Amino acid sequence: MYEVKIRPQAAPEIKALPKNVRNHMREHLTKIVAVNPADCSVELTGPLAGFRSYHLLEYRIVYRIFEELGLVVVVGVGKKNADHCAEIYKNLEAMAMAGKLADNVLTNLRMLTPS
After folding, report:
1. Which is nearest to 76 in space by CA: 40, 68, 93, 38?
2. Which pLDDT belongs to residue 52?
3. What's the chain look like in SS3?
4. What number is the average pLDDT over the span 59-70?
5. Distance, CA of 101 to CA of 106 (rounded, Å)
6. With contact defined as beta carbons under 8 Å apart, do 101 and 108 qualify?
7. Measured on CA atoms in the order 98, 99, 102, 103, is the torsion positive or negative?
8. Which of the pair, 103 or 5, is modelled with greater confidence?
9. What superfamily does domain 3-112 belong to in CATH?
């Protein structure tokens, strides 16, 4: 069983979701993603290589698995649009291209784990 953590920058995205979606997401994160995060998701490619996407209703939950820590870190949540792309992917790709995404994940991971 993995521990699921939310990156602080992803919290506003989750809070902006309708309450029923947030509840559904919480349930899926604890009962499905935390149990086997690799098998329930799709591996991303390109600038987001190393991240995974879990599809929930019309939303995408993007996270990274840290096997050695038994940890899943949610880096973003976004709604899929009509052409089957998610705004979250575009936002995360822009951060990755700027070299910020990995640094943000590592910084946040350090904050989330005890010293």
Report:
1. 93
2. 92
3. CCEEEECHHHHHHHHCCCHHHHHHHHHHHHHHHCCCCCCCCEECCHHHCCCEEEEECCEEEEEEEEHHHCEEEEEEEEEECCCCCEHHHHHHHHHHHCCHHHHHHHHHHHHHCCC
4. 90
5. 9
6. no
7. negative
8. 5
9. RelE-like (3.30.2310.20)
CB atoms within 10 A of CB 92: 23
pLDDT of residue 80: 77
The overall average pLDDT reported for the chain is: 83
Residues 75-100 pLDDT 10s: 888 887 765 566 777 777 776 665 56
The amino acid present at 54, given as its one-letter code, is: Y
**CB-CB contact of 33 with 4 (8 Å):** yes
CB 9 within 8 A of CB 35: no
Q: Are 101 and 73 in contact (CB under 8 A)?
A: no
